[in-house]
Amino acid sequence: xxxxxxxxxxxxxxxxxxxxxxxxxxxxxxxxxxxxxxxxxxxxxxxxxxxxxxxxxxxxxxxxxxxxxxxxxxxxxxxxxxxxxxxxxxxxxxxxxxxxxxxxxxxxxxxxxxxxxxxxxxxxxxxxxxxxxxxxxxxxxxxxxxxxxxxxxxxxxxxxxxxxxxxxxxxxxxxxxxxxxxxxxxxxxxxxxxxxxxxxxxxxxxxxxxxxxxxxxxxxxxxxxxxxxxxxxxxx
Amino acid sequence: xxxxxxxxxxxxxxxxxxxxxxxxxxxxxxxxxxxxxxxxxxxxxxxxxxxxxxxxxxxxxxxxxxxxxxxxxxxxxxxxxxxxxxxxxxxxxxxxxxxxxxxxxxxxxxxxxxxxxxxxxxxxxxxxxxxxxxxxxxxxxxxxxxxxxxxxxxxxxxxxxxxxxxxxxxxxxxxxxxxxxxxxxxxxxxxxxxxxxxxxxxxxxxxxxxxxxxxxxxxxxxxxxxxxxxxxxxxx
DNA sequence: CCCACAATGTGCAAAAATTCACAATTAACC
DNA sequence: GGTTAATTGTGAATTTTTGCACATTGTGGG
Lengths: 236, 236
Description:
The structure is a homodimer.
Chain A: E1 5-6, E2 11-13, H1 16-19, E3 21-22, E4 25-26, H2 29-47, E5 52-53, H3 55-62, H4 66-74, E6 80-81, E7 85-87, H5 88-99, E8 105-110, H6 114-121, H7 123-127, E9 130-137, E10 153-155, H8 159-165, E11 170-173, H9 177-189, E12 194-197, E13 210-213, H10 216-233
Parallel strand pairs in A: 8-9, 8-11, 9-10, 11-12, 12-13
Antiparallel strand pairs in A: 1-2, 2-13, 3-4, 5-7, 6-7
The structure holds a DNA duplex.
């Protein structure tokens, strides 16, 4: 725990408190995650005819309450018009600015199994400005193979060199759990700034590196806990 | 919002308050998610020599504080021995009992693209008692194809019939976002009890069905928000 | 048997996050 | 131009979650 502080939502890093200060207001950690969720329906609506949206409607679409929406947005400014609502295009632009998704980011992926492949080929990433610049795997049988997205699989030993040459900022780990910590060390040694880890272990990083752990089985266990709970209570 | 209540961690369902009551104590929502995380290192340790583990050590391995670990466990009973710690095997067994992962669950998956394929082939699921009994896709080119795991891809129109015949409890959605709501309706109409949705939209379900939405891009946006925040503050 | 040490379990305090209620503002209509 | 309806922005109250401090209990050694 010396070099790592867990942020409730799952992201972890160093000296979190400082990062969450904007002017003098503290931004609740879950707010950031919700902002990302708000942007999904806004993207959809931004194509269609609707020009404005109320906090009530946006809340419905995202499964939260409307005061929550208003409060979340109010942390960062006054984006709406009283009596009217929020302009869809403008709000989307503001949220993107807040989240820093109005700029391009450079990624690499480590571990080109089924999952790694699915992630690197995923349209949603590229569409949102996340650019995979390199793919790594330690399996000699995979190295040299070219993926549909155009990337050629590199051996893990080239990691440091490529990350620095291509200015890669974020690393995604999609290896088996056993390799995840080793890969994390390789990535951080190469100067990566943040890691999105899909291996079902909690990887440790040195000061100044961000980690977010995504664990599918945790989500499933959440579900089955509540499922069993329901049948036990005989509510349904 | 009429038929759906969002639980902070991302899981949503109906009348949540009731489910979280055990005897008279309210269980914090994040506690369940952490219990799942605690079980990972316990599984690893359960093979090796260590027989007991302290809350301090377990907390380190999971990136939380030690009072947090103790408090989380104390909601469900007294599993440790004062002055000693927790017996690894026993604690794992207790957590599995709490989470209902000591039993088998039946799943199906809808959408056999890269991601769907990666999920259904994933060892971690089967290893933990999550059994995929059916795979669906609406693409006629995919229907009839047999996956490495042995399942044959079924057309979506067979969904209701198969879910009922095989007593499938949980559905996983790995379709493009546009199809996700339609698939959700199909699943709930077929009597599914819970849905794990990987499409980047918030799907709506009728009363009595659980949903957990997993959105990779939300995790990434979380990261880039904090990353930009760091460089702006000039901390590194 | 007693004492020192280690580690859990827990009531209470603190912090964090959400919800409420309403003042403020705008648009639309007559 | 005034009145009504709609909707935001926000301080205060409430609820939820976490952290602290310590009493409690078990272990091992002399």
